Amino acid sequence: MSNIVSMATNSNLINSMFSTRNTGKQNSVTSLWNNYSATNGFTSASGMSAANLYGVKESYAELVSSYNTAKDSFYADLDSDMADLKDAAAAIKNTNFNVGENAVTTTTSVNDEGETVTTKKYNENLQNALDAVNKLVDSYNSTNTLLSDSAELSPRLKNAAKMFSDTTARADLYESIGISVGSGGKLTVDEDKLVSAITDDPNRVTRILGEGGLADKAESHVSRLESQQGQLFPTLSSMYGSQVKAAEAYTGSAAASMLGYANVGNLMNMFF
Questions:
Q1: Cα radius of gyration (the chain)
Q2: Nearest alpha carbon to residue 182 among 209, 148, 135
Q3: What is the pTM of this model?
């Protein structure tokens, strides 16, 4: 079947078949009807047999199944990312950045090529602090990427993506302790710079990352997402027409299962 490009002229028949007042669904089903009839060489409703009618209904059921799969996949990914981010933020708040003296030891050796190699070793407290920061950054980036990949699906998702990507307000502070803010709000850790910041001024690192810092920001963002749970992904009834631009959002990991729509001829693309 081809992409949906127009409304069918026999919408009254479709409405009676599916007994729905949902405009988005009607548009989808009537377009399915048009495409199905064109594919099978019918020019009017009177030319369709009961088997043909069932074929249209079956295709629509397949479309609904694909939608439900995509929605469930998105929320599973989002729930997982939010849980990881909440845990990471809590861990940062419980991290003691006062790692003690001599937290970094340096040794040198000569390798087989005669080159001098310098190796750094961190004490347990410092290593735990670095692990906590990296977990927070990775979890934040994962959620940010999920929302960015899905932003075009609905206005709510677009707003959520914007909220996560907007880390510029404190970018200079993050940068000063070794966490840079890149394109789209992606965070990157410079380990050497972070180690220096922790060992030089652990209290400052705590203020920037802990209470009132990045961890609080992350928890606030998660709380806002949770308050909209179930409303972020667009409803099936909100989807109609041939929205090719919105379909590009399905290349993201959160909506990979949307490729299932290809099985019904890329019948719909989403917008909210």
A1: 26
A2: 148
A3: 0.67
